[in-house]
Amino acid sequence: MKSILFCLSIICVIFAIGCDNTSKRDSAQDEKSDTSVKLKNDNSTKRRYISIGTAPAGGAFFVVGAAIAEVVDGNVPGANWEVTAEATKGTQENIRRIVSGELEFALANAAISYFAVRGEGAWETEHAIRSVMTLAPNVGLFLTPQASGIRTIQDFAGKRIVVGPAGAGFEYFLKPILAEHGITYDDFTPINSTYIGAVDLLADGSAAAAFVGGAVPTPAATQASTSQEIFFIPFDEAAKQALFEEYPFFNAISIPANTYKGRTEPFASMNVGAMHLITAEKVDENTVYEFTKTLYTHRAEVVKRHRAGKSINPKNVVKDTGTPFHSGAIRFYREIGIWPE
Fold this sequence. Notes:
By secondary structure, the chain is of the alpha/beta class. It is about 45% helix and about 20% strand.
């Protein structure tokens, strides 16, 4: 009997040790599982930094881009995003950095995007960019001091003319415009300068005329017309019609009277490539969807910062300017019933 009791005691001790080890293993596995869940949750709440490329100060891209960044950053629901605007050299740099992944979104001129996505002009390869939203028209203006004697684009011959910042890609829309007016870059001396610099060059006589553009009112045009008497050089009507027929990014625009000092009548200008928001084709659909939805839903806040925000409306945002739209943007536009099927 003593032998039997001794054996039973040994068995109980072994069983107890086994249960204790099992309990420790289960506890360790539970702790590991809890740690895994915690790490997963930490990853899901990891802060994401989103940069929007704009352009140099002095133009509407810089101001509108900053407004878009502020509005999305302050309103995107359920996403731990930090959205900021970054000053760049403009559309060409933005397109290259979008494709390389350095920027998530950017503002671009639709005329330049048109050629980049097709690999035409100076673009040696097709660049996989996609439109997110068509924004304000890029209203082109050729300005000259009233006393210069220049009254037509043909009068540029032999003069010093500001054609925009170096590397910004303005030649993609300026060359077709000039060609339809019977003049080329070879007929005058092209000067590269920012919009703010162009105003100074006109003021001190270093340039006879300058191109400025952007959403209305364009800060540089406002500054130029308040600092001296400025003549707004008209576009030839036949030339405009030819451009409208050949390229989807050109269209007629009338600048209201009294927008700029000295302009008491409407001015018949044209859109030389709308400002549009772009991203890379490879950016995931949900990111673009959430960005588009947030910006469109809170578009009134953009208007408070720049009147170009008024272009974020049902008819304008889906306009085709020659660059395909991203699937994430299309998904949102279909959801609210404004996508043209």
